[in-house]
Design brief:
The chain is of the alpha/beta class. The chain has helices spanning 114-122, 135-144, 173-178, 249-263, 292-296, 304-329, 370-373, 400-407, 424-429, 487-491, 494-501, 508-518, 532-535, 566-580; strands at residues 5-10, 17-23, 69-71, 89-95, 124-126, 129-130, 183-188, 208-211, 223-226, 229-232, 235-236, 239-240, 270-275, 336-342, 377-380, 389-391, 395-396, 437-443, 448-453, 456-460, 547-550. A hairpin with a 2-residue loop joins strand 9 (223-226) and strand 10 (229-232). Helix 6 runs parallel beside helix 11 (494-501). It is globular and about 60 Å long.
Length: 614
């Protein structure tokens, strides 16, 4: 093999920060995709200069498809964001703990998700999209456009009794969009701090909020257990929502989203952040809350816990369809941008009393393997120039802030220093991604870090002492009775019908073609994780030494290439050290007993604003 020079660009501290060119051997396959050229990106704390991106291209300037994605047969859209048209409505739907293998558009027939699939096939399937390994850091990254190491949110989640939150010095996505004339609403989970009122959603850019402040709750009684504490966690703005007791959380949030859309003045652009708690597990006494009729619909699944999880995903998928239909009824859909994303990889059975699947990816939630950080995501909009394809553009959750700000008519160059990159043109016109690397996280408390640059990924250290570093199913492809993929249900779903009405129709050929392209294939040994490459002398043991993978040819992270490409490994290790020098310390604080809900009428509240009453 020839040893060509590989240009490694660091985006970990934020922007296009070109490092030295190193001469390294090619990866072991000739199928390595072309790397994206350096491009203008937003600036970070370490490089404050922020190039101003060009205006959105006109239809005549649309470039032909690049190797960054794989197109289906959908006709190009003629709608584009421009200064002349009304600002688009933006709906961001965030799922909680949804696994890579828990959506139909990634190839599994086990859990039907017709509404999500319809949006994915008629929009963009984001197949090279990354989130962080756990909840709070991802939400912080989404709201700020910054890596968690730059906001102090990089170590574990924010607990209800912690006297901290996302730093008030940060300007959040809804605050930026309000400056563009948007009416900003949040429905669902917050999980970015509530110990004082000023940390809560309606003090940080949102005009209204219905949902919990902490990381999880029971879907029926809406209480959150964080041992030894327990209390109600459901709010209307700042008021406890006792009246919603007994109503299923997913339905509550769906109905509130429908109400917000129904009451909205469509001449004003809407930003709706719908952050479902589903399918996160509930409290220990009812870990997978679901309606019995939904569980019965999935009796084809052998594992009972997995059936309950599937029922939760089913209700989540219905919610997506209802929200899309609500936009159609108000004639808002043709001028909408809809994003769907998970917040992290799924927790497999036995982890967090849940039953998700990231098959065939390695790892689970709270790990830095692909199964923990490669997110199920999609982007749908009639404003996309080239919809109906599998996007291979490298993307990180931090990129949504500048990308949506651009779609809203803002200038990302005017934003403060962030780590996110404006990818609107890359996604819309199928151009090479401006992003060339992703920092998955650096957590010095746990001693773990991971970074992807081009096709190379370094993983060092392991959470849970490596006990969740394997591959976990189910695959959904080898069940005794496997249901057939129902294309008709996708096309006929609420989202499928609404997409047709909005000018992004689906065809069976498009569905089958994109579904095949979106499924991760780990090669002839797919499903065999017992061979010498994962158990022999060269196998990855990240607690002992850093591991190196070519995730372009080995997305399942089976072949540790650290010994074969030591120069690449050492270069990435130095890059990790460099970016870690820009980190701020984790902001975690000891739990404050004053937060105990028993002091506050058995509710989780702003305990920092009051004196104890009992």
């Amino acid at each position: 093999m020839l040893p060509p020079a590989l240009l490694l660009l660091l985006v970990c501290s934020g922007r296009a920060s070109a490092l030295s060119t190193v001469s390294v051997p090619s990866p072991p396959s000739s199928s390595t995709p072309p790397s994206a050229p350096p491009a203008a990106e937003s600036s970070s704390p370490s490089s404050p200069a922020t190039p101003t991106p060009p205006p959105p291209p006109t239809p005549s300037s649309a470039s032909p498809p690049s190797p960054a994605s794989t197109s289906g047969t959908a006709a190009p859209s003629t709608a584009k964001p421009s200064a002349a048209r009304q600002k688009p409505h933006i709906v961001f739907i965030l799922a909680d703990d949804l696994g890579w293998n828990d959506v139909g558009f990634h190839g599994s027939n086990q859990i039907p998700t017709p509404n999500l699939d319809a949006l994915a096939y008629s929009g963009l399937i984001l197949n090279n999209y990354y989130v962080t390994p756990i909840c709070t850091p991802t939400r912080a990254a989404l709201m700020t456009g910054k890596y968690p190491i730059h906001t102090g949110m990089q170590h574990t989640v924010l607990f209800g009794a912690e006297p901290r939150g996302l730093p008030l010095s940060e300007t959040l996505l809804p605050q930026h969009l309000r400056g563009q004339g948007y009416d900003c609403r949040i429905v669902g989970k917050w999980h970015l701090g509530h110990w004082r009122r000023e940390y809560t959603p309606t003090r940080r850019g949102f005009r209204s909020h219905l949902g919990p402040w902490t990381g999880h709750h029971d879907y029926f009684d809406h209480t959150a257990v964080e041992k030894p504490y327990w209390g109600l966690d459901m709010r209307r703005d700042l008021r406890p929502a006792w009246d919603l007791h007994g109503r299923y959380s997913t339905d509550v949030f769906t109905e509130e989203a429908e109400r917000v859309i129904g009451a909205h003045n469509a001449s004003t652009p809407l930003f709706l952040y719908l952050a479902h708690v589903a399918p996160h597990s509930g409290n220990p006494y009812n870990p997978l809350p679901a309606h019995d009729e939904d569980v019965a619909k999935h009796d084809i699944i052998p594992n009972y816990q997995r059936r309950r999880y599937a029922a939760m995903v089913h209700r989540l998928d219905e919610s997506v369809g209802r929200v899309v239909e609500a936009l159609r009824r108000r004639n808002m859909l043709r001028n909408s941008v809809i994003v769907f994303s998970t917040d992290n990889g799924g927790p497999a059975e036995g982890f967090n009393i849940n039953a998700a699947s990231n098959w065939p990816l390695r790892g689970v939630k709270h790990t830095l393997w692909e199964g923990g950080v490669r997110g199920a995501g999609l982007l749908w909009s009639p404003l996309l120039a080239r919809p109906g394809r599998v996007s291979r553009q490298l993307m990180h959750v931090t990129d949504w802030l500048p990308t949506l700000y651009r779609a809203a008519g803002g200038d990302p160059g005017a934003l403060p220093a962030i780590d996110g990159v404006d990818l609107w043109d890359a996604l819309s016109f199928d151009l090479d991604s401006n992003r060339t690397s992703v920092l998955h996280n650096i957590d010095d408390v746990f001693g773990v870090a991971a970074l992807t640059v081009g096709q190379w990924k370094i993983v060092t250290g392991a959470t849970y002492n490596g006990t969740w570093d394997s591959w976990y199913g189910p695959s959904g492809r080898d069940d005794p009775v496997v249901r057939q993929y129902d294309v008709a249900s996708v096309v006929g779903s609420l989202a499928g019908k609404a997409a047709l009405a909005a000018g992004t129709p689906l065809t069976p050929d498009l569905v089958w073609g994109l579904r095949e392209l979106a499924e991760v294939n780990c090669g002839a040994e797919d499903g065999d994780h017992t061979g010498p490459e994962v158990s022999g002398p060269a196998a990855c043991k990240p607690l002992l030494a850093p591991c190196l993978f070519n995730v372009a040819t080995d997305p399942c992270e089976r072949r540790n290439l650290a010994n074969r490409f030591p120069a690449v490994l050492q270069h990435l290790r130095q890059m990790l050290r460099d970016v870690n020098s820009t980190a701020v310390p984790p902001g975690n604080l000891p739990w404050d007993p004053k937060a105990d809900p028993q002091h506050w009428d058995h509710t989780w509240t702003n305990f920092g604003d009051y004196e104890k009453t009992s």
